[in-house]
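Subgroup meeting minutes
Present: P.N., E.W., G.H.
Scribe: E.W.

1. P.N. recapped why we're keeping a running log of single-chain structure predictions: easier to compare across weeks, and new members can see raw inputs and outputs side by side.
2. G.H. added today's entry (196 aa).
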Amino acid sequence: MDKDQRNQQSLREEAAEALEELATAASLRSGHLVVIGASTSEVAGQRIGTAGAENIAAELYAGLAEVQSKHGFDLAFQCCEHLNRALVMERSVLERLGLTEVAAVPVPKAGGSMAAAAYRRMKQPCLAESIQAHAGLDIGETLIGMHLRHVAVPYRPARRYIGQARVTAAWTRPKLIGGERAVYKLPEVQESHLCD
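Output recorded in log:
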């Protein structure tokens, strides 16, 4: 195995490690949706949007898909701003969630290398205009927050970089409603909390 092959294998393992850690921390499971933002330029040590690399995207996708199949959640890959940050996903996910479909085929120069790679590797790919994901993994500071549910909880995985790209993540929780009398776990209910 030459140096380039080792580096690409390393990217696959790093992506899998980061998503596995998020999946465990966020208790991700079947029915959950995870948004992935990835700049292959940043992974390669270049400025976002300047040096997209399909071979890097392929390795990242392989590592992420491995973890996805293990846990059963769904993945959505954020396109770049040239496609209005639409999301690549399987058609079955779009239909199950009742999302709005938009028409485009992502390519490296309009959508980004990661979205283009995902589109070409899915069984029935399509693009959704927007989503509200349960969690997200951002490789290269692509700004995935617009596609997370309220309330996002920042998560700092142990693996802080994939290649040269900084990694950040988040999972979400339901909004807490009520006030000082509100209770959030059933065992904590006491008579003094009962309303008339």
